[in-house]
């Protein structure tokens, strides 16, 4: 089959109506596209069959995870150029199967599809990669289904996460300073993030902290060691809990910190003086968020504080049309959902909280993700050995694409400080906004 790359480039440009911003190298070694641009490598015609049987994002994701599709050159530049085909054309989401099927009504697209069928070869649907979550059944966000979703993402090996996250073992946005601040490493920035949360919560010796979605225990360790609190950390991941308990024992803090494999809906030993929820609320889901906010409110003593650190998406004109990207849902965070920051604040207020501060830190997450990608690439062979090549490919793509989304303001991340303000109205916060030092140690 001569010049498959040229034929694919022509087809893509006919459908998109604009020049293709990347080169293509096909399985027959032919190349086409702008010289010097990142190269989309189609290693096998099977990639085309994946796209034909699952048009849009899921087909592309399967081809990437299976290794049928790859990128040579700067990964960020390639993803940015390809994303530009969508965002510059006025779209508000990544390609989906429904949109691709609607496009088949256009004559030029139908002709391109016929040509693509010829290039793809045998009309047999390829088996999805093993890393894909299979079809799930039953209602969203039951205790069992949420535990299974968390296990898919987090129970892939603590050693794998150690390679990606580094010594801090913190899987959320770090808090970077300027060069003058001396925050040069990922570990420094993660420590500063944990300390910022502790100061916003006004933690003091002897208080009781609940960390919802405690991960590998970094938050509760920092709070107990630096602020003298007693802490409970909850997670749905058995592997995280095992790792966190070992760290806590080695730090000599087992008498101050308890790690539980428990859902937030199963806690009944309130009250707590403070609650941190960092990178967890994205798993809650829109149908359960009011219950989540209400549960945390009920767990706090009057005057207690909540620090909710959560990724947010941009609002869309019709919120009922929002749906999770298929790649993220099938390969990364099953059943996870993002909400606009306005909706999150509103639901916290409806639960009874007084929202006192919202800090947007999306640029910090972009920088954090780039560090994680660099860690993964530096330890690629070991990471693939610890999990699978497909799993490592999932993590590289999702983290790199997410970094770009934060940089381009397609998604953000916010720390929301809220208080269960007592009836008399005394919040207990400093008079000057963000004077967190006044609520620090001592």
The structure class reads alpha/beta
What share of residues is helical?
Answer: 40-55%
Number of strands: 11
Quick one: overall form? Answer: elongated
Low-pLDDT stretches are 88-101, 438-442
Mean pLDDT: 90
How many angstroms does the end-to-end distance come to?
74 Å
Rg calc: 24 Å
- Main-sheet strand order equals 7-6-5-8-9-11-10
Number of discrete helical segments? 17
Largest sheet: 7 strands, mixed
Order of helices and strands: HEEEHHEHHHHHHEHEHEEHEHHEHHHE
Classify the beta-strand content into a percent band: 5-15%
Walk me through the structure.
The longest helix has 19 residues. The protein has a seven-stranded mixed sheet with strand order 7-6-5-8-9-11-10. Strands 2-1-3-4 form a four-stranded mixed sheet. The chain starts with a helix and ends in a 23-residue tail after the last strand. The chain is α/β, with parallel strands linked by helices and 442 residues long.
């Amino acid at each position: 089959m001569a010049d498959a790359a040229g034929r694919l480039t022509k087809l893509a440009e006919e459908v998109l109506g604009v020049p293709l911003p990347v080169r293509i190298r096909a399985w027959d070694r032919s190349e086409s596209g702008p010289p010097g641009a990142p190269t989309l490598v189609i290693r096998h015609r099977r990639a085309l069959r994946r796209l034909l049987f699952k048009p849009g994002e899921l087909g592309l994701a399967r081809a990437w995870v299976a290794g049928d599709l790859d990128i040579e050159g700067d990964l960020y530049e390639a993803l940015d150029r390809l994303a530009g085909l969508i965002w510059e054309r006025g779209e508000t989401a990544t390609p989906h199967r429904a949109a691709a099927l609607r496009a088949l009504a256009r004559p030029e697209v139908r002709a391109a599809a016929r040509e693509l069928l010829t290039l793809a070869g045998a009309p047999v649907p390829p088996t999805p990669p093993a890393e894909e979550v299979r079809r799930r059944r039953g209602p969203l966000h039951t205790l069992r289904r949420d535990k299974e979703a968390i296990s898919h993402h987090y129970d892939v090996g603590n050693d794998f996460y150690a390679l990606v996250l580094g010594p801090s073992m913190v899987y959320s946005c770090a808090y970077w300073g300027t060069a003058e601040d001396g925050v040069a490493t990922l570990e420094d920035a993660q420590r500063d993030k944990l300390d910022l949360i502790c100061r916003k919560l006004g933690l003091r010796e002897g208080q009781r902290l609940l960390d919802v979605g405690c991960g590998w225990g970094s938050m509760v360790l920092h709070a107990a060691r630096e602020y003298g609190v007693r802490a409970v950390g909850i997670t749905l991941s058995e592997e995280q809990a095992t790792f966190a308990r070992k760290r806590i024992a080695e730090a000599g803090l087992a008498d101050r910190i308890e790690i539980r494999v428990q859902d937030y809906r199963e806690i009944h030993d309130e009250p707590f003086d403070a609650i941190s929820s960092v990178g967890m609320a994205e798993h809650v889901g829109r149908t359960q968020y009011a219950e989540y906010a209400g549960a945390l409110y009920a767990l706090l003593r009057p005057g207690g504080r909540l620090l909710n650190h959560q990724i947010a998406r941009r609002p869309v004109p019709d919120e009922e049309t929002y749906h999770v990207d298929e790649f993220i849902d099938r390969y990364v965070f099953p059943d996870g959902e993002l909400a606009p920051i306005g909706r999150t604040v509103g639901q916290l207020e409806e639960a009874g909280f007084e929202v006192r501060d919202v800090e947007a830190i999306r640029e910090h997450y972009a920088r954090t993700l780039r560090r994680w990608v660099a860690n993964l690439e530096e330890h690629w062979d070991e990471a693939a050995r610890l999990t699978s090549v497909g799993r490592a490919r999932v993590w590289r793509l999702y983290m790199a694409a997410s970094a770009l989304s934060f940089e381009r303001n397609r998604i953000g991340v916010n720390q929301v400080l809220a208080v269960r303000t007592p009836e008399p109205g005394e919040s207990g916060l400093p008079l000057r906004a963000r004077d967190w030092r006044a609520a620090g140690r001592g």
